Every structure is written in structure tokens, then in C-alpha cells.
């Protein structure tokens, strides 16, 4: 659907030279919600603006449904852009126009007949839940309502992909949630592929199928949200995951364990990650029943990732070393990820 | 010397007509030149939607040159040009030429400023929508800047009224001429006062209309 191949983007030259993107490779499948997360200045906006060529990559290829965007002459590029919806952090509504006119703009630009515009705009306003606001002006709307107008407008020309540049970053948590729900609805009911960039991990957790982490113009890690959340590899990714899955052992518990194990060099602490169905298995009680070991849950969180429960436990196994070894082997057969925790290191 | 109203009234009405003619026609032509000028200055500048360094620099320099010449000198300096266009350099119609040359670049700059005030996000939006440059100007830039443009034109009109009074003094007729001929040269203070009051009312009226329109259009 959307493929970015080795995208580089350099701004300015000589002393002012900034290499905002340093060889980005991405592939977004049809109907996917793909999230790109990174800190401010990482190159996220540049990346998403390269997709519809608001920013021309210095080198590399942008392919949308196998069309090489950069090879298109201006007229064809404009035509392709009509099939790419875009929403913005600051909404970019036209202040001098009513909500209806704002949503109608892409259709007017495209020269559609009046009745068609009327019908389409009303459908869109009802889709985003703003039918009663058609005659109002942007100044009369809340932030969330403004973004709904932005979304309705982006959908006007039936795009096959929707680009979201920090679409929820200007909104409060509740409003963010409702906009995320709406974006999910856009994908589920209209089948539109969504590329979303954000610095908020909860956006990734709540609606994305896949995630890429961008840092300093480079994608440092990417994969399914479930995989990246359960086994983040890079430090930056771990930090992002930590912002929403609190898997840090609380300091009080840490000191407690440290004093407890002061005189022994073998302590059997493990981090167990459950995904999906495995979260429903009574794993811990099975261990306790089948092996002569005690299971002590030290810390744990269960989060939902796209309707799939996702658990993160830190357990302590007490018993003879060979029993623990067997118990561990048993755990590893299950659909979980187990890692030893070095309490002195964390 | 008491004012002879029966003689003065037609003179006054004639002067008002001349002023309205100079300001009305002068403004119209200035807008016809100034608005496109402002638009071109915005779209051809660096990072504009139709970036063109040559056109931008040339226009910018021309505008600056005309903007830096005091009006009273401009009137004299372009007499040959005025004569070439109108056939004479004296009279109300002839005065319109320097008025336009004075006002059009001013309007160009004001329109340029109004358009530059439009949030860059609007242009980005328009481009993302697949709008062509023409549509970006007509459907996005101008409507979003309209309220600010109206205020700019109001200011330019008031400047034009002032300039027209000056043009009157050098043969263009109108209220300025009246004030000089009767009020200054013939010591008829009443005439001076009447013309000044008329000019003040005129300016107030224009400013109020401008404010009202701008407010009606502004949605922020
Ligand atoms: N138009 C521009 N001109 C020069 N540098 C830019 C421009 N846009 C972005 N940059 C630089 O590129 C880098 C990435 O910016 P951006 O893509 O906006 O990051 P993000 O959206 O992740 O905050 C930053 O260092 C920024 O200063
Ligand atoms: Mg950004």
C-alpha cells in the first residue's frame, strides 16, 4: 500500500544543514493502522510530509499503491493527493468558513456538482457526529470537535490512506480517546489505511497494529505493537513502553528484596510477559501445583492492547534450584516470555 | 468678508464631486493594480507557492521606489507620464494618475502583509488537498485574509483621501483645492473649517464602514 524506500531528507546547506531523515524504510499494509513514535525533533513531521510530498525527499522513493509519487507531474500529483487524506495537530480549519464549507472544500476543489457535495458532506458530518454543527464556525467548536471536522474533511474525497500528524497532541486525554475511537472507526468501517505519527505511546497502544520508533531521523525499531511492547530492544523503545506499561519495580519493593537477598547470590526473580490467550491461563497456580516451588508475585500490571490482554509480572520462585529449573522449563513451554531479573542491576 | 453661500454652495458641491471622483476612481484603479501586485509578491517570494526570485525582487524594488517618493514630488516628477496618458497634466482626471501611482504600490504592500498573516497551515492544507496554485489563492488565501484585507484597504483609502487633497492643491480641484483657494489665499476661515469638517467626516465614515465589514467577516 505505502512503501518508503531509503528516504533521506536534508534541510538547508552548509552550516544550517540538518539531516532530518537518514534512510527511512517503511511498509504500511492495506487497512493497517501504522504508528510512528518519536520525541520532538526526531523527524516525524518530516516523514509524514514526505508521503504526500508536502516535503520532497532529498533521495529515496515514495510508493503508494505502486505509484512512484516523485515521478508524477504536478497535475497528477494533485490528483493523487486527493486520494490521501491528512489531518493536523492544529486542525488547520478555515476560520472564515462554516463547518459545512470546511468539509466541502476538497469536493469544491475537485469540481464536484452541488448536490453531490451536499449529500456527501451531510453523510460525513453524521459519520463524525457533528450533524448539528454544520452552520457553525470553527471558533464556536471545542478542540475535539475541530479535529472531527478535520477528519470529516480528510475523508471527503474517499481517500485510501489517512495521514495523521500528531492528531491528538493538542487534545486533553478524554478527547484524545474519543478521536482515537473515531480513527478506529474510519479504519474498521471504511477500510482506510492510517499512518499516524505521535509522541504519545498511548496512541500507539490504543489503535495501532504496527509501530515504528524513530530517533534522530532513523527508524530504530519496528514491528507489531504486541511484539514491540513485549520485547522492546532499544533503550528509547523501552522508555516509551515504560510510559504506559509501568513495569518498573517500585523502589520500596526493590529495597525489600535487596535486603532479603543480601547474603545469597542466587535469587530466582523472573519477568513473565503474557500475551493474548496465555493471559487467561492460570499459569502461576499450575506451577505451584505441579512443582514443589512457591510462587511469589512481586509486581504486576495487565494492560489491554487492542482488546488483547497483555500482562507483565515479576515473580519470585522459591524452592530447590533443580525444582526451579524444571518449573522454568515448564513456563517456557507456555506462550509467554520469561526473563531473569537481576535485582541488583535494575 | 462674509461668506456668500449662493455663490459658494455650487463650488462646494463641485469640489465634493471632484474629491469623490479622484478617490473613487483612484481607489478602483489602485485596487486593480495593487491586489494582484500583493498576491504576486506573496506567491513568488522564497518558499511561496510559485517561488520566483526574479519577479519577486523586481516588483519589490519597484514598490519600494514608489513608496519612498513623497507624494508632492511624485506629482511633479511624473508630469510627462501623466500628459502622455491623459493628454494633459492639469485637472481632476489628470490628478488620478499620480494618485494611482502613489496608492497602488501601497495597497500592494498592505495586501502582501494581509496574505502573509494567513496561517501557513492553511496553505499546507490546501496543497495536501490537491488544490492548484490558482485555487490556493482564490479559495484559501484571499478568503482567509479578507477581513484583514478590508482593513488594509480602509487605511489605503484614507491615505488616498489625504493625497487627493494635496493633488487638489496643484490643480486637481476637490476639497483640498477649495480649502487652499478660499480658506488660505482669500482668508475665508469658514471655508477652511467646512472643508476640514467634511474631510474628517469622510475619513470617519470610511473607517467605520471598514471596521464594520471586517468585523462581520472575521471569524476567529
Ligand atoms: N523546514 C525546515 N527547515 C529546516 N529544518 C527543519 C525544517 N523542518 C524540520 N526541520 C528540522 O528537522 C528535524 C526534524 O523535524 P520534524 O520532522 O519537525 O520533527 P518532529 O515532527 O519529530 O518533531 C528537526 O531538527 C527540525 O529542526
Ligand atoms: Mg512534528
From TrEMBL, chain A:
GO cellular component, one term: plasma membrane
A Pfam entry, by short name: ABC_tran
UniProt KW Oxidoreductase keyword: no
InterPro entries according to UniProt: AAA+_ATPase, ABC_transporter-like_ATP-bd, ABC_transporter-like_CS, ACT-like_dom_sf, MetN_ABC, MetN_ABC_transporter-like, NIL_domain, P-loop_NTPase
GO molecular function terms attached to this record: ATP binding; ATP hydrolysis activity
Keyword vocabulary terms for this entry: Amino-acid transport, ATP-binding, Cell membrane, Membrane, Nucleotide-binding, Translocase, Transport
Highest taxon of the lineage: Bacteria
Xref: PROSITE patterns: ABC_TRANSPORTER_1, ABC_TRANSPORTER_2
Domain ABC transporter positions: 2-241
Single GO biological process annotation from the record: amino acid transport
Keyword Zinc belongs to the record: no
Similarity-based family: Belongs to the ABC transporter superfamily.
Protein name listed in UniProt: Methionine import ATP-binding protein MetN 1
Annotated gene: metN1
Automatic annotation (TrEMBL), chain B:
One Pfam family cited in the UniProt record for this chain: BPD_transp_1
Topology class, membrane: Multi-pass membrane protein
GO cellular component: plasma membrane
Transmembrane segments annotated in the record for this chain: 20-42, 54-79, 85-107, 149-171, 191-214
The ABC transmembrane type-1 domain, residue ranges: 16-210
Subcellular location: Cell membrane
Matches recorded under Gene3D superfamilies: MetI-like (1.10.3720.10)
Similarity remark: Belongs to the binding-protein-dependent transport system permease family. CysTW subfamily.
Protein name stated in the entry: ABC transporter permease
Origin species: Pullulanibacillus pueri
Amino acid at each position: 500500500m505505502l512503501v518508503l524506500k531509503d528516504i533521506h531528507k536534508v534541510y538547508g546547506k552548509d552550516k544550517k544543514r540538518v539531516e532530518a531523515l537518514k534512510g527511512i524504510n517503511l511498509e504500511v499494509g492495506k487497512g493497517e493502522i501504522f504508528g510512528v513514535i518519536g520525541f520532538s525533533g526526531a523527524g516525524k513531521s518530516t516523514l509524514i510530509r514526505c508521503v504526500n510530498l508536502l516535503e520532497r525527499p532529498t533521495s529515496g522513493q515514495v510508493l503508494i499503491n505502486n505509484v512512484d509519487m516523485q515521478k508524477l507531474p504536478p497535475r497528477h500529483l494533485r490528483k493523487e493527493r486527493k486520494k490521501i487524506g491528512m489531518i493536523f495537530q492544529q486542525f488547520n480549519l478555515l476560520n472564515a468558513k462554516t463547518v459545512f464549507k470546511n468539509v466541502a472544500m476538497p469536493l469544491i476543489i475537485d469540481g464536484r456538482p452541488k448536490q453531490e457535495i451536499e449529500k456527501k458532506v451531510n453523510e460525513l458530518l453524521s459519520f463524525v457526529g457533528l450533524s448539528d454543527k454544520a452552520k457553525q464556525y470553527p471558533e464556536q467548536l471545542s478542540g475535539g470537535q475541530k479535529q472531527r471536522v478535520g477528519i470529516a474533511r480528510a475523508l471527503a474525497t474517499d481517500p485510501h490512506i489517512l495521514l495523521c500528524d500528531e492528531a491528538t497532541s493538542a487534545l486533553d486525554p478524554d478527547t484524545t480517546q474519543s478521536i482515537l475511537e473515531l480513527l478506529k472507526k474510519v479504519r474498521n468501517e471504511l477500510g482506510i489505511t492510517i499512518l499516524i505519527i505521535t509522541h504519545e505511546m498511548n496512541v500507539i497502544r490504543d489503535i495501532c497494529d504496527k509501530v515504528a520508533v524513530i530517533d534522530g531521523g532513523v527508524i530504530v525499531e519496528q514491528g507489531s505493537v504486541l511484539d514491540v511492547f513485549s520485547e522492546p530492544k532499544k533503550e528509547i523503545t523501552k522508555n516509551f513502553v515504560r510510559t504506559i506499561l509501568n513495569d518498573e519495580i517500585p523502589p520500596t519493593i526493590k529495597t525489600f528484596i535487596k535486603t532479603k537477598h543480601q547474603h545469597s547470590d542466587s535469587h530466582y526473580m523472573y519477568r513473565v510477559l503474557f500475551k493474548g490467550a496465555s493471559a487467561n491461563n492460570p499459569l502461576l497456580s499450575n506451577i505451584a501445583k505441579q512443582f514443589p516451588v512457591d510462587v511469589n508475585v512481586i509486581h504486576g500490571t495487565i494492560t489491554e492492547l487492542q482488546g488483547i490482554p497483555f500482562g507483565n509480572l515479576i515473580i519470585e520462585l522459591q524452592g530447590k534450584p533443580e525444582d526451579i529449573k524444571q518449573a522454568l522449563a515448564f513456563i517456557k513451554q507456555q506462550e509467554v516470555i520469561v526473563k531473569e531479573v537481576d535485582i541488583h542491576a535494575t | 468678508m462674509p461668506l456668500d453661500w449662493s455663490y459658494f454652495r455650487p463650488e462646494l458641491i463641485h469640489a465634493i464631486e471632484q474629491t469623490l471622483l479622484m478617490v473613487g476612481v483612484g481607489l478602483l484603479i489602485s485596487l486593480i493594480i495593487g491586489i494582484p501586485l500583493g498576491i504576486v509578491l506573496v506567491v513568488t517570494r522564497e518558499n511561496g507557492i510559485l517561488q520566483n526570485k526574479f519577479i519577486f525582487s523586481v516588483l519589490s524594488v519597484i514598490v519600494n521606489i514608489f513608496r519612498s517618493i513623497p507624494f508632492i514630488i511624485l506629482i511633479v516628477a511624473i508630469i510627462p507620464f501623466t500628459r502622455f496618458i491623459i493628454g494633459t497634466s492639469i485637472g481632476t482626471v489628470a490628478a488620478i494618475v499620480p494618485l494611482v501611482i502613489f496608492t497602488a504600490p501601497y495597497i500592494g504592500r498592505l495586501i502582501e502583509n494581509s496574505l502573509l498573516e494567513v496561517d501557513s497551515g492553511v496553505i499546507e492544507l490546501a496543497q495536501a488537498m490537491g488544490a492548484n496554485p490558482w485555487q490556493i489563492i482564490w479559495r484559501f488565501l484571499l478568503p482567509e485574509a479578507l477581513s484583514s484585507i478590508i482593513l488594509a484597504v480602509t487605511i489605503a483609502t484614507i491615505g488616498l483621501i489625504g493625497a487627493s487633497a494635496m493633488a487638489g492643491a496643484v490643480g486637481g480641484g476637490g476639497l483640498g483645492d477649495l480649502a487652499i483657494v478660499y480658506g488660505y489665499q482669500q482668508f475665508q476661515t469658514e471655508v477652511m473649517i467646512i472643508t476640514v469638517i467634511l474631510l474628517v467626516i469622510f475619513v470617519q465614515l470610511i473607517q467605520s464602514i471598514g471596521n464594520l465589514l471586517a468585523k462581520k467577516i472575521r471569524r476567529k
